[in-house]
Amino acid sequence: MGTTDQTLPFFTQFFQFQASYDDLPAFTFFVVANAIASGYLVLSLPFSIGGIVRPHAAGIKLMLLIFDTLVVALTTAAAAVATAIVYLAHNGNANTNWLAICQQFNDFCQRISGAVVASFIAAIILIFLVVLSAVALRRH
């Protein structure tokens, strides 16, 4: 999503239409939220390994469970916001005179749609991991 943009020439090379992810704050939030989630997952790896090495350290596991839940919420919110904009890009809204742009910006729409689908898949995987963490913490 962060590299998604498309330019369409209109009459001349000097007058062009451009679609970019940073034209819409919802897509900027989507990129930032997924970057935060990715960064958190990388930074939480040492704590996860510490929880595996020391199985009786419930504090680390509880902290990871709480932060994992927050990351799930952030990822889901970002995907939901981006989904609303992708829907408008594909279908428009006749009541507000918002035109669908995907007929003109086909590559742009395919890339943003793929990014949203990937984000929802990531959210589902994160939900599964949170449930596994909660079950493991409960068994302890």
From TrEMBL:
InterPro entries in the cross-refs: CASP/CASPL, CASP_dom, CASPL
Ranges for domain Casparian strip membrane protein: 1-124
Chain ranges passing through the membrane: 27-53, 65-89, 115-137
Endpoints of the signal sequence: none
Keyword Cell membrane: yes
Location(s) in or outside the cell: Cell membrane
Keywords associated with the record: Cell membrane, Membrane, Transmembrane, Transmembrane helix
Similarity comment text for this entry: Belongs to the Casparian strip membrane proteins (CASP) family.
Subunit structure: Homodimer and heterodimers.
PANTHER family associated with the record: CASP-LIKE PROTEIN (PTHR36488:SF11), CASP-LIKE PROTEIN 1U1 (PTHR36488)
The protein, known as: CASP-like protein
